[in-house]
Prior knowledge:
Layout: E1 2-3, E2 6-7, H1 8-14, H2 16-19, H3 33-42, H4 54-61, H5 81-92, E3 95-97, E4 104-105, E5 113-115, H6 131-153, H7 155-164, E6 184-188, H8 201-204, E7 205-207, E8 213-218, H9 224-254, E9 266-269, H10 279-287, E10 294-301, H11 304-323, H12 333-349, H13 353-369, H14 376-394, E11 400-407, H15 410-420, H16 424-429, E12 440-441, E13 444-445, E14 448-449, H17 466-498, H18 500-521, H19 530-556, H20 570-591, H21 593-602, H22 609-613, H23 623-639, H24 647-668, H25 679-706, E15 712-715, E16 728-733, E17 739-743, E18 751-752, H26 757-763, E19 779-780, H27 784-819, E20 848-849, E21 858-859, E22 861-865, E23 931-935, H28 939-947
Parallel strand pairs: 22-23
Antiparallel strand pairs: 1-2, 3-4, 3-5, 6-8, 7-8, 9-11, 9-14, 10-11, 10-23, 12-13, 15-18, 15-19, 16-17, 20-21
Helix pairs in contact: 6-9, 6-23, 6-24, 9-25, 9-27, 11-14, 17-18, 17-19, 18-19, 18-20, 19-20, 19-23, 20-24, 23-24, 23-25, 25-27
Amino acid sequence: MTTKGATMDEIRQLDRSSQQQRSNSARGFRLTDAEIEQLMESLEHEEEGKERTWARWFVETYLQHCSWYFPRKDIPGAPSLSYSWAYYERVTLPRHFVGPAKRRAEPNEKGETELYNPWKTKQKHLVEFGIGVDLYFQSVRAISIMFLVAALCNVPSIYHYAVNYSDDRGRRWGLEGSAECASTYWAYCEDCTRELFPGESASRLAEADDGSLLAMRNDCDVTLMLGAVNWFTWVFFFLFLTGMSMYQTTREIRFDEDKLTAKDYSVAVKNPPPDALDPDEWRDFFAQFAEKQVTLVSLHLDNEEMLRTLLLRRIQRDQLRRMLPKGTDLDDEDALRMAVDVHIRERDAEPQGCVGCVLEFLLFKPLRMFGLLAKAESCLERIDTLTEKIKELQLQEYELSKVYVTFETEEGQRSALEALSASRVDIIMNNTHNIPPSAIFRDRVLRVIDPTEPNAVRWQDLSDSKLYRVLASFANFIVTIGLIAVAGYCADITRQELGPRMSAALVAIFNGGIPFVLQQLMMFERHQTEGGYQSSLYFKITLFRWFNTAMVLQFITPFTSSISTGRNDLLPSISAILWAELFITPFIRYADFPGNLQKHILAPRAVTQEQMNLCFLGTRYNLGERYTDLTKVLFVCFFYSALFPASFFFGFAILLVQYYVDKICLVRIWGVAPSLGNKLAVFSRKYFFTGALVAFIISSAYAWAEFPYDNLCDPEGGTISKIIPQRNASALRFSDDKRIDVNVGQEEPVRFCHQGYRGQLETYGFNFPPSVLAQPDGLKWMTEDQETIVTWFYWSVILAMVAFFIIGFLRITTKAIVGCFRSNYEPTGSSQRIDFSCNQDIVAYFPSIKLFTYPFPFIAANIDDLDPDLVGFTDTDKHLDHWNLMFDVPFPGMHRRKRSLNDPEPSPDEPSPEDELQPEQAGNTERPIFGIVKHYPPDWWVSEALKKNR
């Protein structure tokens, strides 16, 4: 491409110096291997006498001198554990400049730095980790304080339960603030049968000497004060969370990280003609809407399978490279196989020792079954297999999948979105007669949308069909439900056999391990944006943790065991869950088993220094997963607030511990993560905090309506039997043949009735919202105060559901329905009047794939016509072609060979780069097999680039 005589290669060469000054770390990228080596060499002398973490001190002082821990310590040229631990503290862990401001220092920045102290790092300093991290910790701290205030407000209810719901036997200390009812008596029941009390007849139903049946009644009534305190607590939480949402929204604006990006200038075409592969044609079409011009066009093909295979091949090659001596040429097949043979001989000759043999059998072999820790020969075999598969995929024809067009101004983008906005029906039916002729491209009604950010596009998943995406998501949802069922079954069996404490510990372990399991399942899902992926994962983890922690217990516990005092009943189980959340869950997170496995098992057995350093990248964390832990505690305390108001004290303590443990993990355990923005905070506030509030009012309504949880009713208008019961019934016989002496506490017999919604669902139908009408005709179990409370909550549930429906779903549904029949594009915000080419930190749209273990994303397109500054990163050690997957396996039709950093940039006078290719590689294919990106810089931009060389 040429603009006023200047080619993109000339512009690239003129602007290389400014490109190398760009900050990769500012965009969330790690240092390159060369930058790490330079940094560690410069810090070699500074490390002496510096403060070290206790783990590093213990390893360097004791463990690394033991052959069972570091079996390669006596081998010449073995990697250094001290070097990797220094790398961990200097590169992986976050550091700040010395001083009260604690401004975060990037690894390659000059100045005296130190590690963040988790105890001295204040809330105001956490914004250095990004607005998303800052909002998360702010939410945890604010909600913990909210729990403390709510707990103090519920002291009257806690006192009432402690005094009035207990008999002379007393209760366990941890349940004093709950509705556990230790005050009971026996009453004759004419229509009771053992079948009506499944799983409970051994303790709640007995037979007298005369053959009549007696049932146990809970002598624990509801007072108006209990319901009022609970209702006003819900109002308090509603006001508090609303105020917190407003405050955080203001804070997001103040610390706005969503500055102008390529998204503000771009549009995306989701249904382009499959053969419209000329970027100039797209530029000419969209130029009619541009205020100034079209600056970038990016074409993406439906070649995702080939891209994923190329990515797997690159990963295998890098795994193999780390096992071999530095400088081994992986492209020289003979030299590569020779190096692998030497490596195998050296590996087999090394003594394993007892510890090594145990680890090989118990750890390394099982991991290799899942493709992890592969041996060199396995990597080489996989590379050969993947290479052959790639060559087959390169021979296929690929169609255009998505088009991204970037304008020079925001006005151009808005004009295009407004002019090309069409109803969903017109797009699907291709009703060109309803669309202005200027908006028709090749006789097609285009679906043009406002795209997501360039780094949030999942290019490897863009072309999968909607049907596959829906089916895969639904299948994973079903699997998640199955996991919930399995976890609930295991928790129930454990509770019956070992008690609620062991069951609660198992629940905590399940909650800790579910993110890893679901992340593996997410590999089968296809999401076009990173936001869609994170939301899907976030939803499934939240669903599992909410059900596993709170709701499953209610389903597996018999109804009449809800407030009874048995060891395995509901409230003792909830208490055990909360204690586990207070101690076991933070211990699992702080213990960091995956990270310690990397640092203390795999790292000492690494063959090369690079392989060892990869074990010190820190534990990968997901902010969405941390939010699920927060909402899980919120949900449990809300769900059982009526029966267990003391849970608010637990919630305060749990979140206080979570705040400090997560802060320790952030500064001493977790790896480097890019700034995540405020999307997860907004998502949590909008859906999960709101959902928890709705669950609060609904669960409380049912809790008050179902008291006293004994499934026994008094008849209205007198007795229902002429039998006159005896006051004393001795030697009652239970279903397990146990006998006890009891006193009958009620003259009139009682009748069986379903007080719980599960029993009512089987007999009377679904009772929602719960109301006083749930009481059967002629029978009554609610007191007058209880009926008043139930009526309050009945209308509160209706109002909450209506508000939630309107805010959460009606607006979205209405917009979707209206969009089917007419265009509904509305611009948001105001234009900043800054041209695209004037923004120095902007990144273009081009196909790329980012992996956690690599410093930069892999490019998957022809970017020769793209200015390097728009790529978004600079590798001072390698050419951009190193990060471009299209050069990994040569194919017929390649436009040029792969370049290295030392190769001179071609000039117009040089022969075509295609002359450098092998004969079987050169030539032109009818259709490209990789995406195409083309840059059309404005004239003034070219002139400025030319002036820099004068």
